[in-house]
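Milestone M4 deliverable, item 7.
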Amino acid sequence: MVEEDLVVSNSSPLIALARLGLLDLLGDLWGPVLVPHVVRDELLRKGTADAADIQRAIDAGSVRVRASQAGPNPWPHLGDGEAAAIHLAAQSPSKRLLADDRDARRAALAAGCSVVGTLGFLLHAKQSGRIESVAPLVERLQAADFRIDPRLVNALLLQAGEIEGRSLGSGQSPETVSPRPPIADRSPADG
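Output delivered:
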């Protein structure tokens, strides 16, 4: 895969996929993922089993570290890792970002990037026939203290065909997951 096609990621999706043991699947479906140095530092600083899995992915080349030519953070409401990932994605030919945080996703969209989150990746993996079901994976993330809006879980399961009900409307997608507490002022349209 040429570097022009690569996806840039911030830390949250990689942590989630490491917890699920799906970092290899990420590389299999989308090729190597780029992360800025500051995101790598965030991922490895934790010293957890996730950090060891992520270091193995870096060593194997499925996660590649790149310098981001970002100057001062233009999004002061975002962390340095999120801002660097958005900047790197905006500079890349593909302009594709893997991110979960609502504010980071909004900033990336405003910067001209296309964005998918952990749940969107899981849906893609199921639709590609690489995983059988997304429901048990979402349950494992929730058990690991990842906060996922129940409306997004419902939308994901509907789109994945794992529950019956009304389908998603145009422009709706199940892509936001975060290891942070949910934002109290989130509206259904915010995702």
